[in-house]
Design a protein that fits this description.
Blueprint: H1 36-44, H2 52-67, H3 95-103, H4 111-121, E1 126-129, H5 136-150, E2 157-160, H6 164-177, E3 185-188, H7 194-202, E4 207-210, H8 212-221, E5 234-238, H9 240-243, H10 246-268, E6 279-284, H11 289-297, E7 304-307, E8 318-324, H12 330-344, E9 350-353, H13 357-369, E10 375-377, H14 383-394, E11 400-403, E12 418-421, H15 428-435, E13 445-451, H16 456-466, E14 471-472, H17 477-484, H18 488-506, H19 511-525
Parallel strand pairs: 1-6, 1-7, 2-4, 2-5, 3-4, 5-6, 8-13, 8-14, 9-11, 9-12, 10-11, 12-13
């Protein structure tokens, strides 16, 4: 690549077809002069965090799409008692909290917020099912904050998420919505100092947002934390379908048993005079058998269920395409897509999804050798490095994020124009979650699947579950192949250099180096397993 070449530099005006809705969107925020705390909260939001502007843009775009009737036929609501309520005030949200929303540029609730907020405020257990990027966080954050404001104490709510990055993002949104009160939020995730986290919990924050593994470890190792959990009113599972996987089941049971057990003990000892039931809220983009089973086992029979759609749904504004490539030259085609196809379509940023952390690391090194700016995000990185990578990508300092499915759930990065499936996932739901990182809240987006001879069955499974057919770039294959293969020697040299760097860094005889070599062989064979 020529020195000084900018991968995503703005292309001069040309006659080429643009991808719809890729222009940046701006929203004017009207600050409330009477609420200095809200203003201060805006100022302290750091670059790369989920900003109030992003929250506001998503809400307004979703409402426009809904009001235009684009999604009316997809709405299938089991309990439509609340859906006729069209404003936050109608839903029962307090005036002061409506003012906070207004100061953030949020004036009207999205469909999932209309369908769930009033039910949460009425004390019901809730299952909220809606597309990724539909405003699910506000659907539980607003009623929890309002309920807390009437009787502020800690610990009031425990919110569990499958990934560290999602926990941090939810924390940012709680701080934004709770800027009108002295809200204390604690994020309990792996990769951070456990002693500091134990101290945070001992101070009884109002809201705990955690990954299940780390919270369970702290509850089991710190005997003095029980008193703070005697009066927990809310337990929220965000991305509930993922949290109900067998890999999280023991942690969830432990945490729930701990909360219910400490409450029962406090009632027996007279510390808590009036017993109450833990209100449980489940939010997800997909409805699974595990959700049905959980509803039967622990949720109230009068649980309010909001379903914005049935099955797996791809955003209406997403362009789905696939490119058939031989497994051994997949990196060559990826390089061509990044350096030719994406600039032609004026794509500013993209997430490249791989199946494993070793493949993610290796692809990152290959692109670095080729002079392409990118950051990686996977479970093998330290939490500090993961946050740094995410911040660089969110702030548009780096245009490419290479990630495992740790980044496929819930992350709100408004400027993602494209998703590239370097490895096709086995589970169609994972494809939907990955693709949901783009085309959010009515914006346009592009999903490209690099399909090898080993992936045909997986693609057919995705198309069957979603009801969509990916458009093939086969018509362009001849021209693409001729151009892409010009870079064959260059890309192969970069791959060899990347593997050598990994071997030198880890030591030629270490297990990790062997794993990377194995990952490279598996990539060539197209038989990588899921992480």
């Amino acid at each position: 690549m020529e020195e000084g070449f900018q991968l995503f530099a703005a292309a001069p005006p040309k006659k080429k077809k643009k991808l719809n809705n890729f222009s940046p969107i701006t929203t004017t925020i009207n600050d409330s002069k009477s609420d200095n705390k809200i203003k201060q909260n805006k100022k302290v939001l750091k670059q790369g965090e989920c900003s109030p502007i992003a929250i506001a843009e998503e809400n307004e775009l979703l409402l426009k799409e809904s009001d235009n009737g684009a999604s009316d036929k997809d709405v299938a609501i089991q309990n439509d008692e609340y859906t006729s309520l069209v404003s936050f005030k109608d839903l029962g949200v307090s005036e002061w909290l409506c003012a906070v929303c207004g100061s953030l540029g949020i004036t009207n609730p999205t469909p999932v917020q209309r369908g769930c907020i009033a039910a949460v405020l009425s004390g019901k257990d809730v299952i909220g099912l809606a597309q990724t990027g539909s405003g699910k966080t506000a659907a539980f954050a607003l009623p929890i904050i309002q309920s807390l404001s009437k009787d502020p104490y800690g610990v009031y709510a425990v919110i569990l998420t499958p990934t560290r990055e999602l926990a941090i993002q939810i924390s940012d949104q709680f701080k934004a919505f709770g800027s009108g009160m002295s809200l204390k939020v604690s994020v309990i995730i792996g990769g951070m100092d456990m002693q500091k986290q134990a101290k945070e919990l001992s101070c009884r924050p109002h809201i705990i947002i955690a990954t299940p593994g780390r919270l369970r470890s702290l509850l089991e190792s710190e005997s003095g934390l029980g008193a703070g959990f005697r009066r927990v009113r809310f337990m929220v599972l965000d991305e509930a379908d993922r949290l109900l996987d067998p890999s999280f089941s023991s942690e969830l049971k432990c945490i729930r048993s701990f909360i219910e057990g400490t409450h029962a003990m406090a009632v027996a000892e007279g510390v808590v005079r009036r017993p109450y039931r833990l209100q449980t809220l489940l939010f997800s983009a997909t409805f699974t058998d595990q959700l049905v089973q959980l509803q039967k086992e622990i949720l109230d029979p009068a649980t309010h269920v909001f379903k914005a759609y049935d099955g797996l749904k791809i955003p209406a504004n997403l362009r789905e395409e696939m490119l058939f490539v031989p497994a051994k030259v997949k990196d060559v085609y990826l390089y061509y897509v990044l350096t030719h196809v994406m600039p032609e379509r004026q794509v500013r940023s993209a997430i490249i999804f791989t199946a494993t952390k070793d493949a993610c690391h290796l692809v990152g090194l290959i692109l670095e050798e080729l002079g392409i700016k990118a950051v990686t995000l996977h479970s093998g990185k330290t939490q500090r490095d993961r946050l740094a990578s995410l911040a660089l990508f969110k702030s548009e300092t780096v245009p490419l994020l290479i990630a495992t499915d740790v980044a496929s759930r819930g992350l709100d990065i408004p400027t993602v124009d494209a998703v590239i499936h370097y490895d096709i996932p086995r589970n169609p739901a994972d494809y939907v979650h990955r693709s949901g990182r783009t085309a959010r809240a009515g914006r346009g987006g592009w999903s490209l699947s690099l399909v090898t001879q080993h992936d045909v069955g997986r693609v057919q499974g995705v198309e069957k579950e979603t009801g969509n057919t990916m458009n093939s770039l086969e018509a362009l294959k001849g021209a693409l192949e001729a151009e892409a293969l010009k870079s064959l020697t260059k890309v192969y040299a970069a791959k060899r250099a990347a593997m050598m760097r990994t071997a030198e860094a880890e030591g030629l005889d270490t297990g990790k180096s062997k794993r990377v070599k194995r990952a490279s062989r598996m990539m060539d064979k197209g038989s990588l397993g899921e992480e």
